[in-house]
Each structure stands twice: as structure tokens, then as C-alpha cells.
Amino acid sequence: MRKTFGAALLALAAAMPAADALAQAANPRNTLVILREIDADNYDPPRSTARGAGEVIYMMSDTLVALDFDMQTVRPLLAERWEVSPDGKTYTFHLRRDVTFCDGRPMTADDVVYSLNRFIDPATRSPVRWRAGPVKEIRARDPYTVEYELNEPFGELLFQLTLFFASIVDRNSVERLGQNFGVQGFNGTGPYCWSTWTPRQEMVLTRHPNYRWGPAGVYQNPSPQVERVVWRVTPESQTRLAALQTGQGDVTQYIPAIAVQQLQRTPNVRMSQQQNYFWDHFMGFKVDKPVVSDPAVRRAINMAVNRDAMVRATWFGTATPADSYLNPAVTGFDAEAARLVPRFDQDGARRVLDEAGWRVGPDGIRVKDGQRATFLVYGIQTQAAQQYLQSMQADLRRIGLEMRIQMWDATVGWGRLATQEFDAFVMSYPYVTATDAFSLYFNSRNRPTPNRMNWNDPETDRALTEAQTSVDPAVRAAAIARAQRIVAENNVWFPVAREQLWVAASARTEGVRAHGIYGIALYKGLDIRLTR
Amino acid sequence: MSATTETDEPIAPPRPGVLARLIREPAAAVSLALVTLIIAAAVFAPLLAPTDPYDNDLSLAMQPPGSEGLPLGADAQGRDMITRLLFGLRVSLLMGFAAVLLGGGLGALLGFLAAFYHRWLDGPIMRLVDILLSFPAILVGLAIAAIFGPGIFSVVLALSVATVPLMARIVRGSAMVVMRLDYIEAARATGMTDARLIWKHLAPNCLSAIFVFATLRFGQVILLGSALSFLGLGAQPPVPELGAMASEGRNFLFFAPHIAVVPCVLIFIVVLAFNVLGDALRDALDPRLRV
């Protein structure tokens, strides 16, 4: 016993200096520690759709064009300028000549062509290949000119090319590492370079010494200001908060909603908010399933839920109740469609159901032709979904609708959400434009996922095609407005909330500004400096 | 009373003495009272609860304990914590009871078979038990939830699977001892069928071991069930379950600690009460400890 005790003491003594050193070494002057919730399974741009992958990829590589903080303006990045042919089918990108990869090799048009072709190559199996548009051919005209030719116009192209899936990577590294590119190593042209990755713990990046091609107009500094960046995984929100307040971490966007107000009052924490942030939560109804196939039921659900109270109780003022399908600040938003979304009116909801023939049964749940007004909703287990679904459930019970909730762990949830076994589902998603969001979810070609509502309407499809392919911006705007009105009139969704993006930074961190492209707050992080 | 002379009357644990012996020990008496109280609270929850467990009032969300009309406060949905706890207790106890009954029953059966048909079945059954033992319960729970979907059924199934091997081992052990006693041989000589022999003679003599283990296991199972629910594999909203309530509350730990702490304290009390009671039962039932 004494021996064991002695050994334990010895081990403790041995561990102490190490732990001590670790605590002190955690944040040297030139190392920025970014705290985040989860890791990604790989960091290969076209092969991951996770925000956790994108936030690091944006720092390790560049896209042809960049998106400004207003979420509307496309700025030059690797391409210093570009032209669009009159028929809208060919984009010519003129590349910067001073760009190098992390290994020092200069980047040329061949690398761009290779990376983009790899993105759209079916063999790469990119789940978001469609974002590259209807590509006919991508070719290099000379070492610094790339021609991007489409089969039909695609008004979204420049916006889509700002997303990290279209990042330019080094062909040699991809071919050398194969499936392990983005797992064992990475070589991009970004402001920071891959150093080491310990999955589920931390990813260490070092400054790219040659980098001076940061997007002008988006950032003040064309070069990174910090020597090392550590992306540290801290899954528990309370631990992240504690780490931030004690200086063990410098920046995080993964702040529990309830803590935002408190952090705003904390003297050694700086908060930054992005107003133009497009990450929405919604409930979608499978329009071909019993009960929710009845437009009256979907309308009643939209009227019955006290969205304001629900959103306040879930996000504590850090999300905006979504009284429309899209954020009013997004390109292509239609105010008329927003007015078609029913307002909160519980008595009205009861009347809608009464008129549609749904009578209140003995247990308080309505019945019509022997069919009980009950439906099953699936969701991925998150704190927010858990919270707002229970509020919805209670509100719907008040008008005689039974909503059954089944939450899934993220590991199996996405598979379940691809089936037809549920009647409604909840989800949250980032988008860049109205056309981007609506083409994804409401095009009949996208059934069964991501069009999990099974919404199949030729008129919507026509409007979406026009919104994507028309050369005339006015026609495009009218078309996407039409699609929004059709969907809103039919109550295919119940819009829940629009998240706000907040970033918290420690006192020694300056220049942190929330961006929010694809939900990613730091984007390229060029202006971030450490003062001590 | 000697075990070898009585062939037809099984040696059941002496009933009148057990309770008396049990409450002689103060800890045991307290735990027995607590367990009774807990079970009564769960059974009569609909009568005792001040409000509807599912009806929310968002204006009361996260009210701290001691607020007007809310002695233990309200949860994030503005539901009375007392009501949620009473109904949560119900679900937790029911899950534990179902799992112990199902897993324990199957485990006991396997144990009896292994001991009785020692030559043929002992090897296969015990290897099966070893295999089952090698899976961590949480992992089994995750796998089952992945197949059947999270829910109370999945948790009960996972807990049952985790209980089977333990019960099988314990029952086999005590049944092996009983099998060597003369009266089994004697009963066999009277031409009793195997099933009747197991039911009338083997089982009753292992009952105290089963009973003690079931009580002890009940506490562990509730804890394990709460852990699974905490991970989101168990009760689905809005059904209250103690582990799920704790899980829901952990996000507000800095701001409204009572939402997580109160269910945790209740889990602690329940598990402790059942464990102490189990220990006391073992002492009271074990003939070797009889003074």
C-alpha cells in the first residue's frame, strides 16, 4: 500500500512541472489559440461540408474570389480581376502572379484548373459538386488566365466560388497523399500552413511567410499578423467559456446563447457581431405524408407557435425570430413573400383546423376521417433543437395537434434524415444567396435530400431554373421572388430562427471581426493581432 | 431446521425475521423508508404533482428555487421542477424495474440452466456470458439506440443486456452450491421432472442471492440509464427522465444551476438508497452472517 502511494506521489511530482509548463506555454505572445466545439474528419476542401473543416481550410488555402463582410460584394483574391462573356457562359479569371504555395512553389493557372476539376470530378465524390454550376470546361489559357465555361448561365457562380470547396490546392501534394490529403498534410496558398494535426484535440498552423495577397477591401492587412494558430477542440461549452475568461484561449465563435450577454459585460472579453449572417433554423414538412400533407395543418402550425417567445427562450436574444423564409439582408430576398408567412394567432389556427374538418377528439387531439392529427418530427440532437421543439410541442398541443419528437445523435442522424420514415424535420443551414438556399431545398430534382419535404412543383422548378440561368439580373430577381411566394403560400416550412453570429476574443487579441461565410466566423483572420 | 431433511418444503428465506433484522440497522431502516417514499412518490406522481408535466410557460423559464409557487424553481421551458422530478422519477424507476426484471429474469434462467445441465450447457452459456460482459454497457446502449432509435425502449434493452451476464454468473454460482446438496439428489430420486426440480428446489434456494443482487443492481441500472439518457439516447422530449433533465440543465450550469443540480441530487439519493438497502438485505438474508 505504502509502495503504491509512494509511486503515485512520484508520478504526481513528475507530472506537475509538465502540467505547469503546459499552462504557461499555452499562450505565448505569437500563438493564437482558437477554441472550437468539434473537429472535422478531414480537411480536403471538396470532400468535407463541415463548418469545422471549412474554418481551417479558409486559413490554409485561398479561393479565386473572396466575399466581403456585407455578404454581397465579391472581391478579388487569387484572381485579381475577371470578365464574364455577354452570354453569361464564360468567366475569364486573371490570376495574381506573386502567389506561392506553402512549400514555396509558385501557383499557376494549371493549379487552379486542377483544383476546380478535382472539385467537380465525380470520382472525388464531393457532396456539393453542384455548387460549381453546370461546367462545360475549365481550362488554362496561359499560365495566369483561367477560362471557366458553363453549359448555361449560372448567376450564382462567383458567390459559390467564394466557398471553401473551391479552394486551390497543390496538385503534387494531392497526388502524393491521395485519400490522405487533408488528413496527413495539406499544401495551399493560404495565410497559414499545415503544421500538425492531432484529431479531436488540436490543429496547429504556422504563418505562411510569403503571404501578401489577402483580399483587399475585405481585410486591412494583406498578410497574417500571428506566427502560430492553434485550433483547439473543447467540446463542453462551459469549459470553453472558462478557458476564454482565464486566457487559455483567445477566440471562439462557439458561445452558448445564454452566455452572450454575460460575456458582453465581462471586462477582459471583446465581443464582435456580424449583422449579415445567414444561418437559419427551420422545420420542413414532408408534403406527401398524412396529416402534414394537408395545407390547412401546415398553415395552422405556422400560426399556432409563439415564435417570439420560443426563440427568446431558446437563444436568449442571440437569434432573431424568423418571420420569413430568408434573411431580409440576403441577395434575392422578397419582401412580398415574407408577408405571406402567417403571423402568430392561436385562435386563428384553431379556426383553420375547424374549417378543414379537423375536430377535437376525446384526448384533446384533433381527428379527421379517423386520422389523428399527430406527426413525427426528426432532428439532430442539439441543445437549441431540443429546446425550441419542446416549446413548439406545447403550443401545438394547445390547438389539438400532437407533435412527436425523435432526436438523433449526429453520427446516425444524417442517415435517418435521408429516409421517408418521418413527417417533419428540423435543421439549420448556412446560405449565400436566396437562389442558393431555395435551389438547394425546393428543387424537385433534389428529392429525397436535401429536398426532404418532397416538394415537387413544376412552377417552383421553372422559377428556380430561371433564377439560376437568366443573364438579366432583373429577371433573376423576379424569378427567385416567385419561388419564394409559392413556397410561403404553401407553408412548406415553419421558419424558426435566424442565428446571430458572435465572436468572443480575449483582451490581448485585436482585430477580430466576425465574418460568417458558411457560418465561419474568422474566415482568413488576417487582421488578428496579439498584443501580449 | 436442516436443509437435508426437508425435501418437499424449499428453504425459503425466513420471512418474518428479515424485516425485523433489516430495520435493526439504522442505515438500513432509513434506506428502506427512503425507497418506500421514492416508490410511493413515483406511483402517485399524477396526484402529487402541482402542475401538468408537459405544459410550459416560457415566462417562468429558469426561475430559481424559492420563487413564488416554485419551491425548486422551473426548468428552461418554465415547467415546475417538482412536477418534472416526480414524473422523471417515474420514468427512471420504470426503466430500472423493467431492465432488472427482463435482464435479471433472463440472466437467472441462464444461470439455472448452466448449473443444472452443467455438463452440456455450462460451457456454452458461460462463454456467451463472457462475451456479453466484454461489451461496455454504454457502448451497447449506443449501438442499440443507433439501430432502434433513441428512446426508453432502447435504454431498457441496453440495460437488460448489461444485466443478463451479471445475474447469470451470480445465479450459476449459488445454484452450483445448491446442486451439490443431498436433497436435490433425493428429489431427483422421487422422479421429479427437471423443470419442477428447478422451480421447486433450486430456485427458492437461490432466491436470496437473486433478490440481493436485483436490489443492488437496481441502483446501478438507474445510474446507467440516467447516463444513457444524459447522452441523449433515452427518453425523448417532452418525457421527463432524471438523466435527460440533468443533461438539459448542464448547458445552463453557470446561469441556472438548479436545472441540472436538482435531478442529479435526486439520482444520487435514489441510487444511494437502493444500494444501502441492497447491502442491508444481503446482511439480513445471509445465513452465515446470522448471529
N- to C-terminal separation of chain B?
A: 16 Å
Approximate shape of chain B: elongated
CATH architectural designation of chain B: Orthogonal Bundle
Name given to the CATH homologous superfamily of chain B: MetI-like
The share of residues in helices of chain A is: 25-40%
By CATH reckoning, the class of chain B would read: Mainly Alpha
Largest sheet of chain A: 7 strands, mixed
- Uncertain segments of chain B: 1-7
- Strand tally of chain B is 0
SS class of chain A? alpha+beta
3D shape of chain A? globular
Would you identify the CATH architecture of the domain at 279-499 in chain A? Roll
Number of domains of chain B: 1
Task: Give the overall pLDDT of chain A as a whole number.
Answer: 91
* Proportion in β-strands of chain B: under 5%
Helical residues, percent of chain B? over 70%
Count of distinct strands of chain A: 24
Query: Which percent range describes the beta-strand content of chain A?
Result: 15-25%
Organism (chain B): Neoroseomonas marina
Subcellular location (chain B): Cell membrane
InterPro entries (chain B): BP-dependent_transpt_permease, MetI-like, MetI-like_sf, OppC_N
Keywords (chain B): Cell membrane, Membrane, Transmembrane, Transmembrane helix, Transport
List keywords for this structure.
heterodimer, A: 532 residues, disordered N terminus, B: 291 residues, MetI-like fold, 11 helices, elongated
